[in-house]
Write a structure and sequence with these properties.
By secondary structure, the protein is α/β, with parallel strands linked by helices. It has one domain: Aldolase class I (TIM Barrel). About 45% of the residues lie in helices and about 15% in strands. It has eleven helices and eight strands. The chain has an eight-stranded parallel barrel, surrounded by seven helices. Helix 5 links the parallel strand 4 and strand 5. The two termini are about 15 Å apart. The structure holds cytidine-5'-monophosphate. The site of cytidine-5'-monophosphate has 14 residues, from strand 8 and helix 10.
Length: about 230
């Protein structure tokens, strides 16, 4: 497993996505397909991007009863993506069922990672909406450990949590971290951000970068800058 930069392709249509990816001549960036694009275009968008030679993180964050998630994961597994995800709050039983569904007849499967607590959930919402009295940090590490003990490969987490996740779950437990911004850039709606160089320093395995690349005048140059800072 190597360090890499994953571009969040948060576009509304296949056309916009292909226009964007066409700018990367001779490069095949790792891309993240989220709910917006998947719900707009369906599984064909995944097949087409795969056919173009990109690695894919399919970010659909499943959360349902174990049997439903198992069956849904079996369908996603046929798309042959590189990484899938779910919510750790669906419980260990759901995560184990997801792994079973994801594993193909030949024993191979995409990597499966868990969302612990969304970075949009703050301590107040944790306490008042979710009725969880433990501190955020403890909740995130507990959910990460549940994911690890269920056989998952890693978690999506804030870059600020990546080092502690590795301490808690082991160096080879993958951390995928969004919330990346350049020191001289606009942070937008992301609150707790890190630069690609800081994310590297702290031990993130993959950084997910969206708007700093997708909204740039020269996306390829910004992507190359991310690669230079994060991968080296
Ligand atoms: O544009 P930006 O760099 O903020 O994009 C980050 C991507 O990572 C988006 O697709 C967003 O949905 C996703 N993400 C996030 N925070 C999480 C989980 C996913 O920003 N906790």
């Amino acid at each position: 497993m190597g360090k890499d930069v994953i571009i969040a392709c948060d576009f509304a249509s296949a056309q916009q996505t292909f226009d964007f990816l066409d700018r990367f001549t001779g490069r095949k960036p790792f891309v993240k397909i989220g709910m917006e694009l998947f719900y707009a275009e369906g599984p064909s968008i995944v097949r087409e991007i795969k056919k173009r030679g990109h690695k894919i993180f399919l970010d659909l964050k499943l959360h349902d009863i174990p049997n439903t998630v198992k069956k849904a994961m079996a369908v996603l597994s046929q798309l042959d993506v590189d990484i899938c995800n779910l919510h750790a709050s669906g419980t260990s039983r759901m995560m184990q069922a997801a792994l079973e569904g994801l594993t193909r007849a030949d024993g191979k499967r995409p990597l499966l990672i868990a969302v612990t607590q969304l970075t949009s959930t703050d301590s107040e919402a944790l306490k008042n909406d979710l009725l969880i009295d433990e501190p955020m940090d403890k909740v995130v590490m507990h959910y990460a450990l549940n994911a690890k003990n269920s056989g998952l490969d890693g978690v999506v987490c804030s870059p600020l949590e990546a080092a502690k996740v590795h301490e808690t779950c082991g160096a080879d437990f993958i951390t995928v971290t969004p919330g990346v911004r350049f020191a001289d850039g606009d942070i937008g709606d992301q609150k707790r951000v890190m630069t690609p160089a800081q994310a590297k320093e702290i031990g993130s395995d993959y950084i997910v970068v969206g708007r700093p690349i997708t909204a740039a005048d020269d996306p390829v140059a910004v992507y190359e800058r991310c690669i230079a800072e994060f991968v080296g």
